[in-house]
């Protein structure tokens, strides 16, 4: 063989393993890239069936004095890992059944900003979720009692309007005027079918009571105030103003009627704002507001409003521990029913 042919043969022979090596290297790199991509791929979002929103916890989530979140946490999330959400006050907890919850913070701005951060976080799928806005509240003695638990039929914002001092008004007339432009923000009628289901599933829940609460109720002459704890419905009034006194209570009822809502039965600080956030992303058909009364919105006939706001030692209403337990006892009946019958509820609220 001539030297030129020998050189050509050698070049062709050497080219074969080089190409093979190149193919092997590319295949290896592709495999490594695929494995790395798979490892770095984000986990599928949690499909949230029910989200429970509390406003505060007193200490830890378990093992000490319970606030609004502890009984929910101990029922659903004791073994759950916290999921951090940028922009939210506290982590979110979820169990394997799709029940999630978090502490959002007190007040309209605090709670609604947390809710929005959670709703928009890609770690969660809220496309079919139900919501339980859960917490403690006040009640007028003419319509409620310490330890009761109430499902909202309407949520009304107490703050969106004009107010002025009573001495600048005609005696006995309201010192409130609605502000135009807030018609879509100031009231929400919650899904009547869902409220009907909530009452059907929870109205007969055995509720806790305390001797201190029973004694405190007797300071009030109203029949409603002296009742044992019960499960009821009505309008929940949302306001950052922690209002007290018969005059302000009367004004809350005036606003509820002015807006065409049911009787005012609960005063709280968050639900209307949280519901507005949910409405803008998923609507309000699956929103529930659940509150337990731990105080009356006014003093008894023998004390002034200031005395009621700043009671002497031993003069406060009892029943806080029992009320926060009652809230979870009532609410979990609805949560458990929805999850256990998800094939029926996932598409929307069935007719009661």
UniProtKB/TrEMBL annotation:
<dbReference type="GO" id="GO:0003824">
    <property type="term" value="F:catalytic activity"/>
</dbReference>
<dbReference type="InterPro" id="IPR035994">
    <property type="entry name" value="Nucleoside_phosphorylase_sf"/>
</dbReference>
<dbReference type="GO" id="GO:0009116">
    <property type="term" value="P:nucleoside metabolic process"/>
</dbReference>
<feature type="signal peptide">
    <location>
        <begin position="1"/>
        <end position="27"/>
    </location>
</feature>
<dbReference type="GO" id="GO:0055085">
    <property type="term" value="P:transmembrane transport"/>
</dbReference>
<dbReference type="InterPro" id="IPR009486">
    <property type="entry name" value="Pur_nuclsid_perm"/>
</dbReference>
<keyword id="KW-0732">Signal</keyword>
<dbReference type="Pfam" id="PF06516">
    <property type="entry name" value="NUP"/>
</dbReference>
<protein>
    <submittedName>
        <fullName>Purine nucleoside permease</fullName>
    </submittedName>
</protein>
């Amino acid at each position: 063989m001539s030297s030129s042919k020998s050189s050509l043969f050698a070049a062709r022979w050497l080219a074969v393993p080089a190409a093979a090596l190149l193919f092997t290297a590319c295949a290896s790199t592709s495999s490594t890239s695929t494995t790395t991509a798979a490892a770095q791929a984000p986990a599928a979002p949690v499909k949230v069936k029910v989200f429970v929103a509390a406003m505060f916890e007193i200490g830890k989530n378990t093992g000490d004095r319970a606030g609004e979140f502890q009984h929910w946490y101990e029922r659903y999330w004791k073994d759950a890992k916290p999921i951090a959400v940028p922009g939210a006050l506290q982590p979110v907890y979820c169990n394997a059944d799709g029940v999630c919850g978090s502490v959002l913070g007190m007040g309209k701005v605090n709670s609604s900003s947390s809710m929005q951060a959670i709703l928009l976080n890609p770690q969660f799928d809220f496309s079919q979720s139900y919501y339980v806005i859960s917490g403690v509240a006040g009640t007028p003695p003419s319509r409620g009692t310490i330890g009761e638990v109430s499902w909202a039929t309407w949520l009304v914002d107490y703050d969106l309007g004009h107010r002025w001092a009573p001495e600048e008004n005609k005696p006995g007339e309201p010192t409130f005027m609605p502000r135009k432009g807030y018609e879509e923000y100031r009231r929400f009628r919650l899904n009547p079918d869902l409220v009907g289901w909530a009452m059907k599933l929870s109205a007969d829940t055995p509720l806790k009571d305390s001797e201190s609460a029973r004694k405190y109720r007797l300071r009030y002459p109203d029949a409603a105030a002296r009742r044992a704890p019960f499960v009821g419905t009505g309008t929940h009034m949302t306001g950052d103003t922690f209002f007290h006194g018969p005059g302000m209570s009367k004004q809350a009822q005036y606003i509820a009627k002015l807006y065409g809502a049911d009787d005012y039965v609960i005063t709280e600080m968050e639900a209307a704002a949280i519901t507005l956030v949910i409405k803008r992303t998923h609507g309000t058909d699956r929103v529930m507001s659940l509150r337990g009364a731990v105080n009356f919105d006014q003093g008894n006939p023998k004390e002034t409003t200031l005395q009621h706001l700043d009671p002497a030692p031993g003069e406060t209403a009892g029943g806080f521990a029992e009320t926060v337990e009652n809230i979870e006892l009532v609410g979990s009946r609805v949560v458990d029913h929805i999850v256990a019958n998800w094939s029926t509820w996932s598409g929307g609220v069935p007719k009661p």
